[in-house]
Structure formats: structure tokens, C-alpha cells
Design a protein that fits this description.
mainly alpha; about 180 residues; two-stranded antiparallel ribbon; 2 strands; single chain
Length: about 180
């Protein structure tokens, strides 16, 4: 059997040490997961930013009437937590998630601990989102298309972050993308 362990140049992927081809494939996979995380965080910022605008400006919401009852959700008692609109909390959460992702490469503390902080934050956001799914389904018996989109985004972000966190825990040579 032929061994394909060629050394890659130091500048490949911006790492400081040469890597063998196997490590290169693992790093590319981590890099893709990181990019998907960034994309999902930006998408979440866009959705929660729109919901925040609608809530704070008291603007009409684009909603597929007949299928979804966005106004019923937005006007319910569950649209706020301790007087703070849930949309604002979502915007802040996605902002922190995006900042953690970006700063993981630039801060020594976050390079070492960022994925753990990110996993905790995303998991907590997902738990709260699942609570809101329960509220929509069984208490309000109404759905908001934007809330559903957010819940899909946060679920995908949890899955991707879970893969990254699992890799971090199982690989001593884990390097952020």
C-alpha cells in the first residue's frame, strides 16, 4: 500500500507548522464547518434583525397569512422576556455568536476556550427556542414563519457547533479554522 504523507507548505491554510495530508483534510473539514457556522450566524442576525425592527418600529410584518399567524405571536405575552422583546434577545445572541466565531482566530483565550463558550451559548439559545416552539404549538396554537426560520437556523447551528465541539474534545491537535 502506498503512503501519501506529503508535507504541505507552512502557508497552506495559514498555519504555522507543516501538516501531513491527513491533517490537511481534517483542517479543511473544520474550515468548512467554521464557514457554515459564520453563514448561519449571519443568517440568524438578518432574521432576528428584521424581527427586532418590526417589533421596535411597530412596522407591519411580512407574513404568509392563512398559513402563519405572525401578529398573534408578536403580540403575545411570550414575545417579551422581563420586558425585553425576544427578537432583541435573539439579535444579541446571534451578535455574540458571530463575535465569538470571528474573535476565535484573534484572541488567545478564545482560541483555547471559544468553542466551549460557543457550544454553551448555542445550546442555551437552542433550548430557549425549543421552549418557544412548545409555546407556539401548544399554548398559542399559532406559528410565525420567521420564528420557524430562526428555529431551523439555531438547530443547524447547534448541529454544526456540536460537530466542531466533538472534534475539539477528541483531537489534541484541533486548530480553529
Amino acid at each position: 500500500m502506498v503512503s501519501y504523507t506529503r508535507i504541505l507548505p507552512r502557508y497552506a491554510l495559514g498555519v504555522s507548522r507543516p501538516m501531513i495530508e491527513k491533517d490537511y483534510n481534517i483542517m479543511m473539514s473544520e474550515r468548512r464547518l467554521y464557514q457554515v457556522s459564520l453563514f448561519l450566524a449571519l443568517l440568524g442576525l438578518a432574521v432576528s434583525g428584521y424581527l427586532t425592527y418590526v417589533k421596535l418600529a411597530d412596522a407591519p410584518m411580512i407574513c404568509l397569512e392563512g398559513v402563519f399567524q405572525c401578529d398573534a405571536i408578536q403580540q403575545s405575552a411570550y414575545a417579551e422576556l422581563m420586558g425585553i422583546p425576544v427578537a432583541v434577545l435573539g439579535l444579541l445572541s446571534y451578535g455574540v455568536i458571530f463575535a465569538l466565531l470571528v474573535l476565535q482566530k484573534q484572541n488567545a483565550f478564545l482560541e483555547e476556550n471559544g468553542i466551549g463558550l460557543l457550544m454553551g451559548l448555542v445550546f442555551f439559545a437552542w433550548l430557549y427556542s425549543m421552549y418557544l416552539v412548545y409555546i407556539q404549538a401548544f399554548v398559542l396554537e399559532a406559528w410565525c414563519q420567521w420564528c420557524v426560520v430562526h428555529e431551523v437556523i439555531i438547530t443547524l447551528l447547534l448541529i454544526v457547533t456540536g460537530f466542531r465541539f466533538k472534534r475539539y474534545l477528541s483531537d489534541d491537535d484541533f486548530e480553529e479554522a
